[in-house]
Design a protein that fits this description.
The protein has 81 residues and is mainly α. It has one helix spanning 37-80. It has a domain at 54-81. The longest helix has 44 residues, at 37-80.
Length: 81
């Protein structure tokens, strides 16, 4: 009752072949960037300098925070006496 009914003589399905195939997409390459050694060296030196400045700011902030905690502790002990 629920079985599918297949045709006795199946007809072959035609294969579709495009008559005029679509043109291939145009590949656009990025413009060639010419980097000389001076430019690379300047970028590296700039990165090192900025990293050193960031590290100096971080160390300074940490030391100021530690000094503030120590001073607060000393002043709190001084007021209790």
């Amino acid at each position: 009752m629920f079985l599918p009914k297949y045709p006795d003589n199946p007809t072959p399905q035609p294969t579709h072949t495009p008559i005029d195939p679509a043109p291939a997409p145009v590949r656009r390459s990025l413009p060639a960037i010419s980097l000389d050694q001076k430019t690379v060296a300047a970028v590296l030196v700039g990165g090192v300098v900025l990293t050193a400045l960031l590290a100096a700011v971080a160390v300074t902030a940490i030391s100021v925070a530690v000094a503030a905690v120590v001073l607060r502790s000393l002043l709190r002990d001084h007021h209790r006496r």
